[in-house]
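Take a look at this chain, tokens included, and explain the fold to me:
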Amino acid sequence: MDLTNKKVTVLGAKRSGIAVANLVSRLNGIPKISDNGFQDASKKDLEKLISPQNVLIEWGGHTQSFIEDSDLVVLSPGVRIDAQPIRWARAKKIPVMGEIELAWRFCPKPVVALTGSNGKTTVVTLIARILQEAGKKVSLCGNVGIPFCEEVLNLQDKDLVVLEVSSFQLESIIDFRPHVAVILNFSQNHLDRHKDLNEYFEVKKRIFLNQCSGDYAVLNYEESRLRNLAPKLKAKVLYFNSPDVLAETSLRNPNQLAAIRVAKIFGVNPDVVAKVFAEFTGVEHRLEWVRTLDGVHFINDSKATTAEAGRWAMESFDQPIIMICGGRDKNIDFSILRELARKKVKKMLVIGEARDKLKKAFSDVVTVEECRTLEDAVSWAKKSASRGDRVVLSPMCASFDMFLNFEERGRVFKKIVQELIPCQIEATSTTKNKIYQTRE
């Protein structure tokens, strides 16, 4: 694909959009950016442009003339495939693709791509570390945080790419063909963007769209919707948790099982896998221990943006849970967790746009309190918690009503928790205990 002197317009000026613009510049094209927001909101991202003087940018909305003056239009993941600028481009027969597809056109290395509704980042991180421990040079990118376009021209000394892909990114693929493609699981998510579960599933399975007989499709055997895909796929189908696989190991964690299945494709020694599992402490914002204060453990699970992620959080602890939930609703049915919440959750503190929906779903099975801010919720959780309790930020919602992204939400939570002042009990000369506050 030759971009020399071609006008490439990317929709969105966040990190992936900037990565596209930089890739176009490096390939001697003419990058353009069209963004609905305003320049101040993207100031930090714009600092990453390698040649800002050569980038044409329009702010505050997309204009038809700007879009039509393009040889190619590239979507950032946050832009809907049916957005007005896309309709303008297609009406003029201007090619349209996503950031993942564009990077793929210039990728010289095999790709391991993984998608799913929950646990994607943890598993791609495990896969990358296992392959690295086995001596392979790996580029880990995609929805995990580093755009594919940012890495694709820096792969000369790499052996392969491990790529996390979302449904938003899969919507706009054309020829994208991973050598190994994995669907980890499937449950309700992003129903604010996809009209229903069937549409969401149709998008997810596009990860296998262009695979051939020399490729591998790795599926979750325990989910019938995924298992039933097998006869329709051209790639060699492998399951990471089928009965024969489970008979060979005592492990039952699906994240570990999926990583093992991919490692076997590349001939990795089981001892290497075991070493990585033993040393792995988790991924930031995924059930991340933050602090133990007065015997109460604070856990950052900001990445939990679905009900199933909330289920994982609840099932991860045997101790009473004070759960901080809420944010922007993704049209998710929270009621599927009512019985589990009744058993596991001591109190639920709800914030953000979805707080009324969460209260309606859970208030008759657990005590639910509304809080104005995350800081208020953490403060109330500290007052409500007893020694041994787990205070878990597991929002089950998107972050965009209050934060830029789940990473910022998690960082803010950790900062609030680290600044909490402990209560210490000190014996006195009387029979009473004196409670006072002090900084650690």
